[in-house]
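Same chain as my last thread, 282 residues:
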Amino acid sequence: MNYSQIRAFHYVALTRGFSSAAELMSLTQPAVSEQVRKLESDHDILLFNRERKQITLTPLAEELLLTTKQFFEIEGRIDDLLSENRSSLEGHLRIMVDSAFHLSDRLVRFHKKFPGLSISVQTGNSEEIVACLRNYDVEIGVVGSQAPGSDMQVHSLGESPIVAVAAKSFLTQPMECLNLADLGDYPLVLREKGSKTRLKLEERAAEMGIMLNPAIVADGREAMLEIISCGLGVGFVSNAEFGHDPRLVKIPLDDANLTMSESLIYLKQRADLRIIRSFINC
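reply #2:
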């Protein structure tokens, strides 16, 4: 195995481009292209489909990319181990959350302690977060589940009741509570499939013989809340995620007794990665 060839493949696959990979590697584009060509030739394989100046990964390349992510992460761990005594922490921490409300205070503390570290936060539902963790696309996840899989290390962030949410303008009069049996009287705005909040709500409704038919399905919590704020229906979030939108009111669910448990998770096999350990310890 030629290290330079594997490294060239890794960056081309990550960036989906030879020129962008060359820039990251501080090499010329022809030099990177030649390394990838030799890798394909030496092993009689095809890693990239090249059409109209666009490249896509073959199934073999997709599998190889996950392996090279692990390979270069181990290389980074070796460097971290040899430099363990240095106080500074550099690099990039990627976090994916179903809600940023559960992470804001922790991010502030972590950034103050390690100002030289860059952090990116993206949102997704629980299924998407677990998939990205397993694909090495993020290091830390926050999900609405305490059982994301046996390959995950789980730290509980607590529980919060699920509440109904509506625009103040939507309600003709204030409501102290809402029953699941009454939901058929209102247009429902639900999250996409894969949302743990939606799954719990639908499971409890099914137990009670109630069918929930959403009038609108929104991709993501923020989109759902924005749609609800326009007076288009009733949605559902955990109480901790309600936030402080003056356009909205929350309504307790009287007969559901549903709670959302939020958990911080990461792959067990990456538990000794310094950037993850530092975040958890902080």
